[in-house]
Specification:
CATH architecture of the largest domain: 2-Layer Sandwich
Mean pLDDT: 80
Number of domains: 5
Length: 665
Amino acid sequence: MSVVSYFALSLYISALINLSAGYIFILAFHLNSKKRFELARIIAIINLNLYLIVMNYMEGLRAGEYLLYFPYFLVMAMVIDVKRSFAELKFVYLITIVSVLLCLNLSPYENYYQVRIAGMFARLYTSNLAISLTLTTFFSYFIFRVNRDHEEAILKEKHFVDTIYNTSLDGVLIMDAEHRRIIGCNNRACELLHIRQKKEIEGTAIEEWFTSEHIELFKTIEGNLENQRAKDWQGELALTSAERTFFAFVNIVPFRDLEKRFLKISILDISEIKTAQFELMKAKQKAEVASQAKSRFLSNMSHELRTPLNGIIGTSNLLLQENYLPEQKSHLDILKYSSEHMMMLINEILDFGKIEVGKLQLGEHPVDLRKFLEKINLQFAAQAHAKKLGFKMDIDESLDIEVMTDETRLNQVFSNLLANALKFTHYGEITMVAKKIFSTSQKATIQFMVKDTGIGIPANKQQEIFESFTQADVNTTRKYGGTGLGLAITKKLVSLFHGELKLESEEGRGSTFHFTLKLAINENRKQYINEDRVKHLSNFPGVKVMVAEDNAINMSIARRFLMKWGIEVKEAYNGKQAVDLFSQHVFDLVLIDLEMPEMDGITALGEIKKINPAVPAIAFTAAVYDNMRADLLMKGFMEFVPKPFRPEDLHSKISMLLTAKSSTV
């Protein structure tokens, strides 16, 4: 608009200045689009001030160019964010005021430097006034629109926050920490405190709503806030409203706003949870009382029943030892069998009761596992042969170990499983399997199985048979009898040993019960080698062997046998000693334990092989695992001897390795 007016009045210099300022504004706009906002503002402000100073000087004050300062002052509030850049706004206003003063003091009232036309100043003044009014009106409207949009956004945001605030499950109170007054709350807080309107609580003192203990807590939190040690507080409090006392989970969060201290108190009603906990506690107490009553009843009844049963069993045994009529023999046998069966049932019920109340504790004593299994074999083999059944015992040869366990309860597990197998098997055989799966010098993992070729168990009944007082079906109970507690007790006993009793069965084709136990090996076993097995074995004169073993007993036994065979023995009690000893002497063979302190056997052998790669090495170990031989061969060993070892095996492997060594030489 100004350029058109300037050309009409032949004010070409003014038009040139205007267009130059316009180009500089285009540059500022470009920088603004590139997000270089600060530089764009600086260029625009300097450009506008210089333009107004020059134009007022070139045209004179009478032309009214200074009127453009009015929309300029108005638009500065939009361009510069007052909250974030108040210092910048003050600086810009200062520059503008200086610019206005320069215009008023330096500019002439009229200036005919460019051209002298009648009515020129009046037309310029009218043009500048129109432009100024137009820009002022436009910017005023734009500011109004922006403020209105901001107000609508703020109202929407407030409505959104209020919706969340008032629909929260927590009752929320905002407390003025300094004056200890409640200044706000949400709808849920009104419901919890039984208040109809918020104004009933807003502005009230906290003493009206909280106890003295609660107020002391608030004071502590206020003190933390004042000392800059503020932390959230969470806990359970009993709160009292106008109509009731209720339990609440309370979260207190201190915060500041405009240098004032406040507390946000969130209250979650947990009365129903507390009631449920109380009812659960009552139910637990009732169950414990009932369990104790059951336990006492079973104990008392077992005592009361055992007393007459002992008399019956004793009397039947006495009668069988005395003279009786031949026809009475069958009656006495029935009496003896029935009384002993009754005693067995009472023992099962009593054991089940102890397990149920958690009073059955396992002992831990040294048990020779092979001898233990052989005793079970003797106990049930005769019964199986009496029924014309085969009875097999498949025991892993490496189970000649002594473990720490409860022999009585372990015997009860096998007795129940084998008794069941005998009861439900009419032809074929029963097999008991014990297999070492893995072992170290401290523990052995052993799998046990009891297989039979009996009637089997249908797939849909295989879980039920482990439940108390349950058998596969009614016909089984009628035909075979029993309480249905045997397998339930067995499963619980196995779980006490930290195992799990599992079943594989097919109806009409037999069943397999199996479980795996980790049993601690007795490290203080007095003797784990049966010297009776030692035969007249050949000697190895002049052979030197290094034995690396950290257990003194194992070392003593190994040394005794090696020296019997004429071998010169050097001892190392850890892997580091073994490496040092090997570097100082020449050996024909090394016998190394895999598990040793400071340096394990595999690492030690690796160092030894660096000194003499060809030396034969035997792993002396209690560990057993899958593909053990292949793994040890890959790590440099030529053989391994499991502990406890058989002397003839050790002798055989030494002989084989020495022969192989001499043949290669």
